[in-house]
Amino acid sequence: MDKISVADARKAEAVGRHVRLQGWVRTRRDSKGGFSFIELNDGSCQGNVQVVAPGELANYEAVVKHLHTGASVSIDGEVKASPAKGQATEVLASNVELVGDADSETYQLQKKGHSFEFLRGIAHLRPRTNTFGAIARLRHQVSMSIHQFFHEHGFYYIHTPVITASDCEGAGAMFRVSTIDPGDAPKVDGKVDYTKDFFGKPAYLTVSGQLQGEAFACALGKIYTFGPTFRAENSNTPRHLAEFWMIEPEMAFYELTDNMDLAEAFLKRIISDALKFCMEDLKFFAEKLENNKELFAKLENVLNNPFKRVSYTEGVDILLKSGKKWEYPVAWGNDLQSEHERYLAEQHFKCPVILYDYPRTLKPFYMKVNDDQKTVRAMDVLVPGVGEIIGGSQREEKLDVLESRMREQGLEPEGYGWYLDLRRYGTVPHSGFGLGLERTILFLSGMANIRDVIPFPRTPGNAEY
Ligand code: 4AD
Ligand code: MG
């Protein structure tokens, strides 16, 4: 008796095999003919396998006819060609064992449509729904594609720290990590004395692995990080999380255009792999989500056309000339909001846009200053449906310029001595970017809210589970 997955049991080539299937009951339907249909799911694919449980089973009356939605079962049987439409196979059970019951009075995931908002409140059970199973499989595939892409292109995967004293983005949106009890914190001149804290100085959850990534790129050439990052911004939007996963390649001897070329090839690979390996789940998203009928057209379009490369200045011009009424005002020097980014990608260019050369005042200290002294070699990749999905830049490789940029942004160069060493010793032009994993999943699936594409979302006011 082979233990096989539901995904394998659904394939025509499984016909004739005697197998064991283990999973959870989605529904049970008792037929007048004295047998029951059990829709079984084990997370291996979007679909269920239909199990036919004949009335002759010894425990038919006592157990099978009382199987509830959500109950776990172990079923032995033979895979048969199915006479029903829409499925190649079904399983004729010779033994049905109840492993764990699910009380239909209290189990919250009964077989009916649930809003995503309701499901957020039962984040431990939502992996059992079609949508969240599909999201989990898609996240897995995208993660694998990312590792494969970089591995094939000669990048090393570097594990950068989660706890750090450096504020990479210089935005001050960091979560402090401390073992000091606020009630009796040691103080000097009325201020908490962090020299007495665990790390001997203030430490935080990282907002980005970039700075440490640069140290490795300036030794190994091409590296990437892939890990959780944290932002204590109080932004309650469908595109922001307090904890999200970021992929950050960093390359020595790369200029901004090399960086753009890499970002474009990288995103295209993620999309083409998703189309290759996640078709069933993508079809589900296209059919089941509102306003998502164009999902495949959108993905194919992105895959088959070059990204539009436009300077920030040109982008602002387009927005000003659009005649649109914006919620946030457009002016050279203002940061672009999601409405502006999406207009450029969705309505104006109708394709991904790489916006580059942003005003220096809008971007972090590490970005290379252009000759015009007004802009930096930044690049944001904006995609339809999401807006910014990638943020990156060429890095400032000159020590003196970097130090003055730090001061300009209110950072003490003394606190970044190790980072400045990378410019003191063997400095090179280098570039990199960060891709938000959850925004990538939003883009690929057409899901509307970032809270629904990560297993356990962390947002202001919510650290449940
Ligand atoms: O543009 P960001 O802030 O860039 C950096 O952190 C750089 N250090 C990256 C680099 O050059 N190595 O963030 C990069 C991406 C964004 O484009 C977005 O996709 C995602 O990370 N991101 C978020 N995703 C979810 N919630 C948030 N609060 C996010 N902030 C950024
Ligand atoms: Mg950004």
UniProtKB/TrEMBL annotation:
<comment type="similarity">
    <text>Belongs to the class-II aminoacyl-tRNA synthetase family.</text>
</comment>
<dbReference type="GO" id="GO:0004816">
    <property type="term" value="F:asparagine-tRNA ligase activity"/>
</dbReference>
<dbReference type="InterPro" id="IPR045864">
    <property type="entry name" value="aa-tRNA-synth_II/BPL/LPL"/>
</dbReference>
<protein>
    <recommendedName>
        <fullName>Asparagine--tRNA ligase</fullName>
        <ecNumber>6.1.1.22</ecNumber>
    </recommendedName>
</protein>
<dbReference type="InterPro" id="IPR004364">
    <property type="entry name" value="Aa-tRNA-synt_II"/>
</dbReference>
<dbReference type="GO" id="GO:0003676">
    <property type="term" value="F:nucleic acid binding"/>
</dbReference>
<dbReference type="Pfam" id="PF01336">
    <property type="entry name" value="tRNA_anti-codon"/>
</dbReference>
<keyword id="KW-0030">Aminoacyl-tRNA synthetase</keyword>
<feature type="domain" description="Aminoacyl-transfer RNA synthetases class-II family profile">
    <location>
        <begin position="137"/>
        <end position="455"/>
    </location>
</feature>
<keyword id="KW-0067">ATP-binding</keyword>
<dbReference type="InterPro" id="IPR006195">
    <property type="entry name" value="aa-tRNA-synth_II"/>
</dbReference>
<dbReference type="GO" id="GO:0005524">
    <property type="term" value="F:ATP binding"/>
</dbReference>
<dbReference type="InterPro" id="IPR004365">
    <property type="entry name" value="NA-bd_OB_tRNA"/>
</dbReference>
<dbReference type="GO" id="GO:0006421">
    <property type="term" value="P:asparaginyl-tRNA aminoacylation"/>
</dbReference>
<dbReference type="InterPro" id="IPR002312">
    <property type="entry name" value="Asp/Asn-tRNA-synth_IIb"/>
</dbReference>
<keyword id="KW-0547">Nucleotide-binding</keyword>
<keyword id="KW-0436">Ligase</keyword>
<dbReference type="GO" id="GO:0005737">
    <property type="term" value="C:cytoplasm"/>
</dbReference>
<keyword id="KW-0648">Protein biosynthesis</keyword>
<dbReference type="Pfam" id="PF00152">
    <property type="entry name" value="tRNA-synt_2"/>
</dbReference>
<comment type="subunit">
    <text>Homodimer.</text>
</comment>
<dbReference type="InterPro" id="IPR012340">
    <property type="entry name" value="NA-bd_OB-fold"/>
</dbReference>
<keyword id="KW-0963">Cytoplasm</keyword>
<dbReference type="InterPro" id="IPR004522">
    <property type="entry name" value="Asn-tRNA-ligase"/>
</dbReference>
